[in-house]
Design brief:
single chain, alpha+beta, Nucleotide Exchange Factor Grpe, Chain A, domain 2, 3 domains, three-stranded antiparallel sheet, three-stranded mixed sheet, 6 strands, elongated, disordered C terminus
């Protein structure tokens, strides 16, 4: 082999070695890039999971706090509802005593005064536990808190106004323990604010019998 041929062969081998050396780092860089992309993707997924978990925990905390508050507010609801019948009976007993009888009998007057004090004390105790008495006389009829028993034609009073309270209602918090049984006006003028108001609806005959 001539010296020129040897030199050409050596040159070719050198070029091949250089090309191989250049290709090796490029392949390594491609592998590092793919690993980096994979890690970034996994990091985003973990971050998304963490944010979702934090949001779920916050929702759970708020829901639990609301349930605890409701439990505190409405814990006495069933007991208070049962005690309303006792208050009604006291009220009926007071209404059954004629003023003339109280005036003629001092002992009866003292008994009536004691019953009145008992009724006031009971209502005060219920109020301390969040129970409020509904006395909607003169207010606009609200189907969420009132129950219409009859209608009273009166052209001088705005329609759907409570003109008579047959039995007071009670509420606890934002819930109704017992709606107020009322009579509402009809035939009167409608105020602009009342045009979209809910009508009383049909008279509840069973509620009228119960009262």
């Amino acid at each position: 082999m001539s010296d020129q041929a040897k030199d050409e062969r050596v040159l070719e081998e050198g070029v091949a070695v250089e090309q191989a050396a250049e290709a090796a780092p490029a392949a390594g860089q491609d592998g590092d890039y793919e690993a980096l992309v994979r890690l970034l993707k996994e990091n985003e997924e973990l971050k998304d999971r963490a944010l979702r978990a934090a949001a779920e925990m916050e929702n759970l905390r708020r829901r639990t706090a609301r349930e605890i508050q409701d439990a505190r507010t409405y814990a006495a609801a069933n007991f208070a509802r049962d005690m309303l019948s006792v208050s009604d009976n006291l009220s009926r007993a007071l209404q059954a005593v004629a003023p003339e009888a109280k005036a003629a009998d001092p002992s009866l007057a003292a008994l009536v005064e004691g019953v009145e004090m008992t009724e006031r004390s009971m209502l005060s105790t219920l109020e301390r536990h969040g129970v409020k008495r509904l006395e909607p006389l003169g207010e606009k009829f609200d189907p969420h808190f009132h129950q219409a028993m009859f209608e009273v034609p009166n052209p001088d009073i705005a329609a759907n106004t409570v003109v008579q309270v047959v039995q007071p209602g009670y509420s606890i918090g934002e819930r109704v323990l017992r709606p107020a049984m009322v009579g509402v006006s009809k035939g009167g003028p409608r105020a602009a604010a009342n045009e979209g108001a809910t009508e009383p609806g049909p008279i509840n005959e069973q509620a009228e019998k119960d009262a």
